[in-house]
Design goal:
The protein is mainly alpha-helical. The protein is built from 34 helices and two strands. Helix 10 crosses helix 12 and helix 19 crosses helix 21. 44% of the residues are buried.
């Protein structure tokens, strides 16, 4: 095995590699072909003036051996396909090194932007378009590869591949900006951006090409398929960060590496940070396995995939598995990385390699395999005691809406009329919300703090939506959580769409207060909106309620979520995605051009906002959720399990992450949004709309903190008095026997 020069900063950890690597027999042919191709397009021996000839030499290309990478990651590809895939990887790694030498080291941001703006022209989705004449090896290689790759694929696949390729090219400027500002990203930001700039989503798209299948377009954007792609990508990138830490940090001055991020954020030494990154890598691979085994079967049925489509999806997943193990094997052999002391995945026990077979190999793999079980071993309803809350970082301020008093009274009357303070069907001994509880929650105050300038009608509507979502968040786990009735829960969720007609008109008769509340709110909200805005609003409401199904699935498995999966789903479960859409639909928000809303800085801003308010709620609700509700969806608990630490340390980590997200919000506002506005040439009116939208998010962050401090929803003694025990009657849902078995096992373990 080759080894980077100098002393390794840490010993490589034991890696979780659940699938054995295999080697493509066409390796030697790919080596010869790709060297000739690299010389043809100018990657080797570029023409004078096109590129620095010292970026790559023939000896350096041979030592890095990208043909070996592709032979391991695509073990079943026939010779011509392996040649094509290898050429793509030679091109993408050359792009990375070319960008480093030409733009990163000199910190030439203007030149980098001009260079990157040309590259999409060589990737036309419409093959009748004529690209410009290439001026350097990167452009020439991309033009050649694009026309050798996309003609055999559908337009839908071309669009996906174009987007992932453009992302890994464009977001190189994010790394450049961080180097220029000597800024190390926070962990959440890093994972999000690494997916784009690291290229693994691009690799996943190429897997479809290499195994000659396509994921059906109607499920490509579903949660299971996106999670599989994201978990695959994160594992690829985290593994790469471990192997490349020495080169990137000690030799190149890079700041985008997960180990460095962990060092800075958790204030730990390099070996400890490397172990934590490896733990996260393991967690992401186990998330991949869990999603494939538990979420795909129902996805196939719900979208009525035919046998060939199902086979294509499973072939694609096997291709992703091959990539993981093959990528690991290559990292241990390439001169590009430090790899002393790495253990070969080829030494793992042989045997079946398909979905569901990794458990058999786990039994012999020691501590790595056993780590997965700690996420299933939580004992609910334990006493955790009061949470000592830290000092929160809150750089923004807000006022109180002058219509608050009237809104409180009108909300109480509306909730009584809708039935939120009435009995819950099929639940004996539980009255839903009492009026006393509703008053203690004081949701009108929440709206008044988040929307201090809203009119009385707008304030009532805001309070109504928040009350509806909060009631549903309580109602759903009571009715479906303890019964583990996934089938009934999906029917409940799907039925809600019928109360949000795009063309306003007749809806089915509501059968629950939750449906009645939705029908009432939709009619009042959607009437003044355009048809397009109604569709956007309905989609995000559907996504918010569907996120409760994710929580239910974890409850059925009794599984504490993976940290990354939790953070990303928390944006939906806490309602933050919904509040951002409501803001956008405001009069001033409508002035923001769609290309701004789609841009990476805007998504970064909104995600930072969402994470702050969601994690803030987790801190305030921790004791109630642990002791009263037996909840597993709380980031304090997730951090406790992942870091193997106590509650107090976990609380501090969550607060540090909140602080980092608020500071990232400030960073985006101060640097990235002005640059985006200039790049797009926004008008004064559009800039005013953008400024207004940012101010609304700031007020909602501040307003959420004010409400969390004042509301009775998190005051534990009062909550216990107001919420009597719940006893369920009627038929049990699908899967309840498994839940009872898990419960008995838990009791037996703790007896």
């Amino acid at each position: 095995m080759a080894e980077a020069e100098g002393k390794q900063p840490f010993e490589l950890p034991d890696f979780y590699v659940p699938w054995p690597a295999r080697l493509n027999p066409n390796l030697e042919g790919a080596r010869a072909h790709t060297k000739a191709w690299a010389r043809k397009v100018g990657i080797l021996d570029p023409p004078p003036g096109e590129a620095d000839p010292n970026i790559w030499s023939e000896a350096k290309l041979d030592a890095m051996d990208y043909a070996l990478l592709c032979a391991y990651t695509h073990p079943e590809a026939p010779g011509p396909e392996l040649d094509l895939i290898t050429d793509w990887y030679v091109w993408v790694f050359y792009f990375d090194d070319h960008f480093l030498e030409t733009y990163k080291r000199p910190q030439d941001q203007a030149g980098a932007k001009k260079y990157l703006d040309r590259l999409p022209l060589f990737m036309p989705v419409d093959l009748d378009a004529t690209p410009p004449e290439p001026t350097n090896p990167v452009e020439r290689g991309l033009a050649d590869l694009w026309y050798r790759t996309v003609p055999s694929k559908s337009v839908a696949w071309r669009r996906r591949f174009f987007e992932s390729t453009k992302n890994l090219l464009d977001e190189s400027t994010w790394e450049l900006s961080n180097i220029s500002g000597q800024r190390v990203a926070n962990p959440i930001e890093y994972i999000e951006m690494r997916r784009k700039v690291g290229g693994a989503p691009w690799s996943a798209d190429l897997v479809e090409h290499a195994v000659f299948v396509e994921v059906p377009d109607r499920i490509a954007a579903s949660r299971p398929m996106l999670v599989l792609k994201d978990a695959f990508s994160d594992a690829v990138h985290l593994r790469n960060d471990i192997f490349s830490y020495q080169r990137e940090i000690q030799e190149e001055g890079e700041l985008s590496n997960a180990i460095l991020v962990m060092e800075r954020f958790l204030d730990v030494d390099t070996p400890r940070a490397a172990d934590l990154v490896n733990d996260l890598l393991t967690s992401r691979l186990q998330q991949f396995e869990n999603t494939a085994c538990t979420e795909l079967p129902s996805l196939f049925e719900e979208h009525a995939l035919d046998p060939i489509e199902r086979a294509h999806v499973l072939t694609y997943i096997r291709g992703l598995q091959d990539w993981q193990s093959g990528g690991h094997e290559w990292h241990m052999r390439s001169s590009r990385y430090m790899n002393k002391g790495a253990s070969s995945s080829l030494l793992l026990p042989k045997g079946p390699t398909g979905l569901g077979t990794s458990a058999a190999r786990l039994a012999s793999s020691g501590a790595l395999g056993l780590k997965r079980w700690k996420n299933f071993s939580h004992v609910p309803y334990q006493r955790v005691g009061p949470t000592t809350l830290p000092d929160f970082y809150m750089p923004f301020s807000t006022g109180t809406n002058p219509h608050l008093d009237g809104a409180r009274q009108r909300l109480k009357e509306w909730a009584r009329r809708i039935g939120f303070t009435g009995p819950v069907p099929h639940v004996v001994g539980h009255s839903g919300w009492t009026e006393r509880e509703l008053e203690a929650f004081d949701i009108a105050y929440f709206s008044a703090r988040c929307s201090p300038d809203a009119s009385a009608d707008a304030l009532d509507l805001s309070a109504g939506w928040i009350t509806w979502g909060t009631y549903g968040d309580d109602y759903f786990p009571v009715v479906y959580g303890s019964t583990r009735d996934m089938a009934g829960a999906k029917v409940f969720v799907k039925r809600l769409s019928s109360f949000m007609p795009i063309e306003l008109g007749v809806t089915p008769p509501p059968t629950t207060s939750f449906e009645l509340g939705l029908a009432d709110l939709w009619e009042r909200t959607a009437a003044p909106l355009s048809v397009d805005d109604r569709r956007k609003l309905r989609k995000v409401i559907e996504g918010t309620v569907e996120s409760w199904l994710w929580q239910l699935q974890n409850r059925i498995q009794h599984r504490i979520p993976d940290p990354i999966d939790y953070v990303e789903m928390r944006r939906w479960t806490c309602g933050a995605e919904l509040t951002t859409v409501f803001c956008r639909l405001g009069q001033q928000g409508a002035a923001i051009p769609s290309e701004v809303l789609r841009a990476r800085p805007m998504r970064s801003l909104e995600n930072a906002y969402s994470d702050y308010v969601g994690l803030l709620n987790d801190l305030y609700s921790y004791q109630r959720e642990m002791e009263v509700e037996g909840e597993i969806h709380n980031f304090v608990l997730v951090v406790e399990r992942f870091l193997d630490c106590g509650k107090d340390e976990a609380v501090q980590v969550v607060n540090d992450l909140m602080t980092a997200r608020a500071q990232q919000f400030e960073h985006v506002v101060a640097t990235e949004l002005p640059a985006l506005s200039d790049d797009l040439g926004l008008s004064a009116h559009a800039r005013e709309g953008l400024e207004w939208y940012v101010e609304q998010l700031q007020k909602m962050m501040s307003g959420t903190l004010h409400w969390c401090r004042e509301t009775g929803r998190f005051k534990e003694p009062e909550r216990r008095e107001l919420s009597p025990p719940v006893h369920f009657a009627g038929p049990r849902g699908l899967g309840t026997s498994a839940a009872r078995i898990v419960s008995l096992m838990t009791k037996n373990r703790t007896a």
